[in-house]
Design brief:
Largest sheet: 7 strands, mixed
CATH architecture of the largest domain: 3-Layer(aba) Sandwich
CATH superfamily of the largest domain: Type I PLP-dependent aspartate aminotransferase-like (Major domain)
Strand content: 5-15%
Number of strands: 12
Bound molecules: pyridoxal-5'-phosphate
Helix content: 25-40%
Distance between the termini: 50 Å
Low-confidence stretches: none
Oligomer: single chain
CATH class of the largest domain: Alpha Beta
Length: 422
Amino acid sequence: MDIETLALHAGYEKDAHGTMAVPIYQSTAYEFRDAEHAANLFALKELGNIYTRLNNPTTDVFEKRFAALEGGEAAIATSSGMAAIFYAFANLAAAGENIVCASQAYGGTLTQTAHTLKRFGIEARFFNVHDMEELRSKIDDKTRAIFFETLTNPSIDVADIDAIVAIANEHGIVSVTDNTVATPILCQPLLRGVDVSVHSASKYTTGQGLAIGGIMVERKGLTDKLKSNPRYAHFNEPDESYHGLVYTEVGLPAFTLRARLSLLRDLGAAPSPFNSWLFIQGMETLPLRMQKHSQNALAVAKFLEEHPKVKKVNYPGLPSNPNYKMAQKYFKDGMASGLLSFELGSFEEAKKVVDSVEIFSLVVNIGDSKSIITHPASTTHQQLSEEELVACGVPSGLIRLSCGLESSNDLIEDLKQALERV
Ligand SMILES: *Cc1c(COP(=O)(O)O)cnc(C)c1O
């Protein structure tokens, strides 16, 4: 089935009432038929609902549908994108081990990896997403994950997915990508061999800025890569916390199984069923919206590129952009999503434009149907040093736009009048 059809139907079997819309199962827990049923569920002899921290029928539809869009085997939803990213790393690495991460990444991901994981004894080593030799040089026998964003936020680079996958596979390391900005509509990294994709569902998935959530999807066949892999002993040895379960021997997707039974159980960043329901609504129109977001962003990028006050425009849909070839290779019909950035001469000029726009809202979010403007240096990336700012491609005069679903003419007019005030 094509992705437009999956977005509307995958993962849902109508209940006894023939309910067209996926119901919201707003319940904390589920009754067992009898003691044996309860015991079977806990022992994984039967699969079913126990408690909403572990699973929920509405969330289950969200997970199955998202996995279908990504072409993955199984998915696990979390209460935020940051939780999904943390669970991906926590599922792979332990204290004393390391992960190798592209330095062009979301601000929260940079602080989580460089600072929070460090306190847990997991070292993050960074590489420039365009420099495969640097990536190679950071790998050693303690490396447990290679992480990158397919379309980076906010620097708007496009990763060479095939090259990174090849290096990860050469070393038997699990590759993890954040596919939030591209969405599975424009890019399906798991079908190119990436092992795990993570998303903030708070962005294009909800699509209207309605809820915070995250999801992690595993590639078909990842269990075979984990099996007997010396880097991932914890997937191959009995888990004492789950009466000696060996995750790669259950016959279920091992990565997601461990994330559910161990991480969701113990850390508990489970999504609310209502939010899962909102994400399901968002997914129905995701294929249509991603086309319009991409068209609007391309029109705005072309306008900005011609503007004398603009030093530089970063949008991979522009033929002049260094990422253009990658975008043509990896994204459906070369569509490059709704995110673009442009550089003005200074921090002050950027602030002036941000304060002068009328349709664009000054908000730290992306992927809303309403257009958004952000100045990363004064907001999302404020905690980073000047050095870190430059390393992750966010100079202080940089403005990021998330183009929504308005008329592109109106968006261009709005930017035109704001730039006149600089
Ligand atoms: C927003 C975002 C996140 C974090 O997601 P939350 O849902 O806000 O926790 C992670 N990665 C990218 C690329 C994002 O844009």
